[in-house]
Design brief:
4% strand, two-stranded parallel sheet, elongated, 211 residues, mainly alpha, Protein Binding, DinI Protein, Chain A, 6 helices
Length: 211
């Protein structure tokens, strides 16, 4: 009789334990889902390249470089002309020595001008890149919050047109995202928001480069 009671107690205990475990297992997914981190993806390269502000800026930079190129040619031609003029003077004459000093001064001024312009171009371009990146990150954060996304990871399309296998392998190994559901991709929405902001700020008229 005691053996039968003990066996029944063991069976009842096992049923209770199993029921509690099953209840915990059912509750676990909802608890994890509630506190789970939501992740989205963004093609940062595409956003930078296809952002209307970037396109306008690149066009302005090209125009600025062309203008500098024209002035560079004019300065070099002027120096070459002065060098050729030297040949009409006797090397031991006072006019020759005076013109030699003038040519040297022109060359020094030319090199200083060229270095200054190249440095200014680099610095201003850098400021625009930083400004654009700030716009992209802020807009990305706004779009992500609107979708309840906590983290955004950059993704890149694989450029299979490259012939260099080393470059191709480097692309593959440097990719952060191998696969992501299209539902997680906010690239197009971010680009639309950025272009809308650019249009509201004045569009192409708002870009002043090399002023």
């Amino acid at each position: 009789m005691k053996t039968g009671i003990s066996l029944m107690a063991v069976v009842l205990t096992a049923v209770v334990v199993w029921s509690l475990a099953a209840a915990d297992n059912k509750a676990a997914p909802s608890a994890v889902g509630k506190g789970a981190t939501r992740v989205g993806v963004l093609d940062l390269v595409k956003v930078f390249n296809e952002f209307e502000q970037t396109k306008v800026l690149n066009a302005e930079i090209d125009k600025y470089k062309a203008k500098l190129g024209e002035e560079k040619v004019q300065r070099e031609d002027k120096i070459d002309t002065e060098k050729k003029t030297l040949q009409t003077f006797a090397p031991d004459s006072a006019d020759y020595q005076r013109r030699v000093r003038e040519v040297r001064k022109m060359m020094i001024e030319y090199r200083a001008w060229l270095e200054s312009e190249q440095q200014s171009l680099t610095e201003e371009h850098r400021r625009w890149i930083e400004r654009t990146y700030d716009m992209v990150t802020q807009t990305t954060a706004t779009v992500a919050r609107a979708h309840g996304i906590d983290v955004i990871i950059t993704k890149e399309d694989l450029d299979k047109s490259v012939s260099d296998t080393t470059v191709l392998l480097k692309q593959i190994l440097n990719r952060k995202v191998v696969y992501a559901s299209p539902d997680l991709d906010i690239t197009d929405e971010v680009m639309k928001s950025l272009n809308d902001l650019f249009a509201k700020s004045g569009g192409a008229k708002s870009i002043q480069f090399g002023m």
